[in-house]
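Quick note —
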Amino acid sequence: MNIYWESFKTFFKIGIFTLGGGYAMIPLIEEEVVNKKQWVSKDEMLDLIAIAQSCPGVFAINIATFIGYKLKKERGAIATTIGTALPSFMIILLIAMFFHQFEDNRIVAAIFKGIRPAVVALIAVPTFNLAKRAQLNKWTLWIPVVSALLIWLLGVSPIWIIIAAGIGGYIYGRVAG
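Predicted structure written out below.
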């Protein structure tokens, strides 16, 4: 089968069945791209996630673009990016066309209230899996905890956290390496 079509279909399927944004997509992307299709290894996936999080823009688009580029350079990146973005675009377009008909519907509101906790779980699971693969231990666990607290409680920009982590990693690599 044509790799462009297959990668488009794979990311289209992931995009259409994922609620909660890019982070909720991680388990589906890993299952399809790492486990089933073996387009990237687990270690490569961890690196791609870190890069996608560090780049400006939508996480889901970034990760799809990087995987597509790894597969087949620019054309692969285009196929996976369109595959990821198209379902959301179509759904948002449909919602915009019919929103006024159900915006005050109590059943729809109740459905969304029920979906919210599931989305939190969809985001939490890949976070814990990433922590395991990043080989966090008692000496490094403080880094994500302090980073999260700085962002959440003190309003520190994630950009400063990323810059500080990059500088700290560079210094650690020079000293320990």
